């Protein structure tokens, strides 16, 4: 069913060039940062991008999918493409893909979407389809390589919680320390929490 939905979505978007699609996604993220999810409207997106609202609905179906696809485009899910030969090296390489400024912006977006998803089932479903499930699958591939290399026991219960731990680092940094996540913080968290959990 998911593949069918993806095929339908691809068909809907076929008339928009990749450049135009990227421009639309960037505008959506800008609006999301400015007004939040609940106040973001398709009218506002249409005005900001000089598009017709009918075109937006035809291509993306609604606000939830448009936002989820914008996040996916901004943060491509290609974790498994990083292969340094060690689990710590893979996580370090992933950490260094974003500078501190980008991490702060992404953390703010996560808070906005996390809050909105609690009261918006359509948004939650779109985020699960376009972002959460693909990231879980990619993270499993990263960890499976470590299992195959003998770095992680195949029965280690922490395997199922790697993404939870990493997302938790972003959320906890802001709530507990009143500071945005940084490369240094995430790297130290991985060394102190994630790697030991997986190496146990």
Write the layout of secondary structure elements.
Elements: H1 2-13, H2 18-39, H3 42-49, H4 53-60, H5 63-74, H6 87-95, H7 100-119, H8 121-149, H9 162-177, H10 183-199
Pfam family, one: TetR_C_11
DNA-binding region: 41-60
Keywords: DNA-binding, Transcription, Transcription regulation
Structural account:
With 200 residues, this protein is mostly helical. It has helices spanning 2-13, 18-39, 42-49, 53-60, 63-74, 87-95, 100-119, 121-149, 162-177, 183-199. It is built from ten helices and no strands. Helix 7 packs across helix 8 (121-149). The radius of gyration is 18 Å and the shape is elongated. The N and C termini lie far apart (38 Å).
Number of helices: 10
Largest sheet: none
Percent strand equals under 5%
Mean pLDDT: 88
What order do the helices and strands follow? HHHHHHHHHH
The N- to C-terminal Cα distance equals: 38 Å
> Rough shape?
elongated
Radius of gyration: 18 Å
Residue stretches low in confidence (pLDDT < 50, at least 5 long) are: 5-11
Structural class: mainly alpha
